[in-house]
Write a structure and sequence with these properties.
globular, 351 residues, 3 domains, Rossmann fold, D-amino Acid Aminotransferase, Chain A, domain 1, 35% helix, six-stranded antiparallel sheet
């Protein structure tokens, strides 16, 4: 198949996306596909006149990239766009995607998970992997996901939306219940998530979270084991337990070597695996997600599961969780990439 792996963009998860994209592209090429990577924002400004020749480019145009300790400088990325375009799609991206049999969405965060790219592709008749635009947008919003969880009876920590300005942070820091979590509604990779230990740290979190834009959530903090479970098609994969080396599982801990230990399958009972898998499937279906997703949970000291959020385009880097879950059921990384393509290609909605 001719496959464009779309990555990069202007999300705070840009670096994660590029590593995902390069990993997926190389795996697909090893399995005989004519796969090529494209940065959705920077595009291909020096592409040849015959774009189709790019599908045979050496190493699929995969960049030599890695994930830094800090999130990327997006202003610096914007400055790299030399042709003057202001839209999300860089030069030749849409034209190349239109030539592909399917586009593998290796995007993370706002560029890719909020449904805008899926909607554009639907309008242009471009086939792509994963969920459609509406389900993606719902899942990207932690507020909408919380509302859907509440309506479906899926247990989730108590929450509320905060509407305030920077000048209100001191007052809110005195009034909000503790312990709590402060998070932005549309963040990912643990960016824009704060776990204040006291009211001084809460005030700081209320100020810093505003930098991420969008809605802000207060959430009751539940203490317990961190687990996550992927959904592939109509089944839940074996859960992973995450044991951060540091106290908090932040951006650096998630992607740097030694930042966390991940146990897969998680050391839980078969009954607990079945319960958590059923909840992940229920949320996947409630939101209308398709093909694959990954849902994060906490397991408290009384044995109760609490659903935190769902990822409609979970990470597919070498350090990512869904590939580890797939490996636990005997599916290699390359096989997982092909299965995602196979299931996405079967969706009638994208005919």
């Amino acid at each position: 198949m001719k496959i464009v792996v779309l990555a990069g963009g202007l999300s705070t998860e840009r670096a994660v996306s590029l590593v995902t994209g390069a990993s997926v592209c190389r795996a697909l090429r090893q399995r005989g596909h004519r796969a090529v990577l494209a940065d959705v924002f920077l595009g291909l400004p020096e592409a040849p006149a015959e774009l189709e020749t790019l599908f045979d480019a050496p190493d699929g145009l995969c960049p030599d990239t890695h994930i830094e300790v800090q999130a990327p400088d997006l202003d610096a990325v914007r400055a790299m766009r030399t042709e003057g375009g202001k839209g999300l799609f860089g030069p030749n991206v849409l034209e190349l995607c239109a030539l592909a049999d399917i586009v593998f969405l290796g995007l993370h965060g706002q560029d890719g998970e909020d449904g805008r790219i899926q909607a554009a592709f639907d309008l242009l008749g471009i086939r792509y992997t994963g969920s459609g635009y509406l389900a993606s947008g719902l899942a990207m919003s932690k507020v909408m996901t919380k509302r859907m969880m509440d309506s479906a009876g899926i247990p989730t920590p108590a929450w509320r939306v905060l509407e305030y300005g920077r000048e209100d942070a001191p007052r809110l820091a005195r009034e909000l219940p503790m312990p709590c979590v402060i998070k932005t509604s549309g963040g990912g990779s643990s960016l824009g998530v704060f776990l204040p230990e006291d009211r001084a740290a809460l005030e700081e979190a209320l100020v810093r979270v505003l930098e991420f834009g969008g809605q802000v959530l207060w959430e009751e903090r539940i203490y317990g084991r961190e687990l996550t479970v992927g959904v592939l098609g109509d089944r839940a994969l074996p859960a992973v337990e995450i044991l951060p080396a540091e106290k908090d599982f932040d951006y650096a801990a998630k992607y740097q070597s030694g930042g966390a230990r991940e146990l897969c399958p998680a050391p839980i009972t078969p009954e607990q695996q079945a319960e958590m898998g059923a909840l992940a499937l229920k949320l996947h279906r409630t939101l209308g997600l398709e093909v694959y997703s990954r849902t994060d949970f906490l397991l408290d000291g009384e044995g109760r599961f609490w659903c935190l959020e769902v990822n409609s385009l979970p990470g597919m880097t070498a350090a990512s969780l869904v590939p580890k879950e797939a490996a636990a059921v005997g599916m290699s990384y390359g096989e997982l990439c092909e299965e995602i393509i196979r299931q996405s290609d079967c969706l009638k909605r994208r005919a």
